Amino acid sequence: MLKEYDGKIRLVFKHYPYRYRDFSYLAAQAAEAAGAQGKFWPMHDLMIERKALDRQSLLGYARDLDLDVSRFTADLDSGKHLHRVEKDVQLARELDIYQTPTFVINGRLLVGFRTLDNLRKVIDEELAGK
Prior knowledge:
Elements: H1 24-35, H2 40-50, H3 55-64, H4 69-78, H5 82-94, E1 102-105, E2 108-111, H6 116-127
Antiparallel strand pairs: 1-2
Helix pairs in contact: 1-2, 1-4
């Protein structure tokens, strides 16, 4: 979908780990640690697909993605990316965002699952200045 709007929109991903879900903060940090090695979206997709978010599973995903596992592990263990995750959570609170997924398109909040057609409609409206 991003390709059809090339140069007109940008996707910005923000973390909002659920505080009562096991490993959600660790998973957010793992995505950032993978991103530091150029593999944010592949890690994101593996976590969604495989669902296990415990430390050992995340290390296995790092191996599967051919990441530098020592660097990835050091990033997780040091909490190197925790500040980024906490900053995203703070932003969500400031915007009164309480559910995932939430899409923000030019200030318009779309809370919950949305089809591509629904997102496309809102993007087109915003690009047209409506």
